[in-house]
Structure formats: structure tokens, C-alpha cells
Amino acid sequence: MNNLIQRVQVIGFKERTDARFQKIDGYDAHQIEQMVKEFVVEQLYKYEIDYDLIGIAITGSRSRGLERPDSDLDVVIEFNTDTKEYVLFNILHEEPFSIGGVPVDINPIRKEETGDLGYYLHNAEKYLANKEETKSEIRIRMEQ
Question: Which residue intervals of the chain are DSSP H helices?
Fold first, then answer.
């Protein structure tokens, strides 16, 4: 995917997240992403993983204000590294991590495996739009 297109997709996704994200323990989406980034850096340092962190974004129901009280917080992170996604996933889920009592589910991706962050968020946007539409339809039926 073209770098410019990827950046536009990431920026657009994050703008929509900013507009609909419900703060967690007083933290907004940018602060949450920074906290997750710090946790990730700390975890990967322990294993001496060589990587570049390309980008990070809150995804899932919380990115669109569609969460339930028991929903976790989904975060995707794109890495440039030789370490496989499943290895990164296992490292990042070795210790439970939560923010304000909300469990954080970190999904590491690499361009070589899942695709870049723009591609991932493009697909996440489709999924979330469908989820939101379904939720609206249910709400309308219940009101009738």
C-alpha cells in the first residue's frame, strides 16, 4: 500500500476514534496509546527484541463508542522486525496489562504477515461500520 494512502487511512481512523472514544479512567485515546507503547517497549526490552515501532491505534468496539461495560481495549501495533507476529503476541501477553481496570489486548502486526497498519485499519473500519449498523438496527427494532 502506498505510504501516503496508509497515512491518510491511519489519520482518518484515529480522528474517528478521537470523536467517539469514551475516556478510560480519565485517559483519552492518545494517552492510552502512549501507555500501551511504554508497556510494549518495556516488554520487548526484556527479550532484547530488535524492532521499529511503526504505528499504534486503538481498534475494536472502544474505538467507536460501541463497547459494553465488560469490553476489553483492543490495540494494534505495527512493527518492522524479523520477529514473527505470534512471538510478539506471546511476549506482549505474558503479563496481564490493564488500564483503569480494562484489560488491554495488544495485537502486533508486521507488513510481511498481516499487512501494514493502514490496510489493517481499513478492514477494521469495515467491520466496525457493520457492527455499528447492526447495533442501530437492533435498537430501532427494540423501540418499535
Answer: 3-20, 29-46, 85-92, 117-143
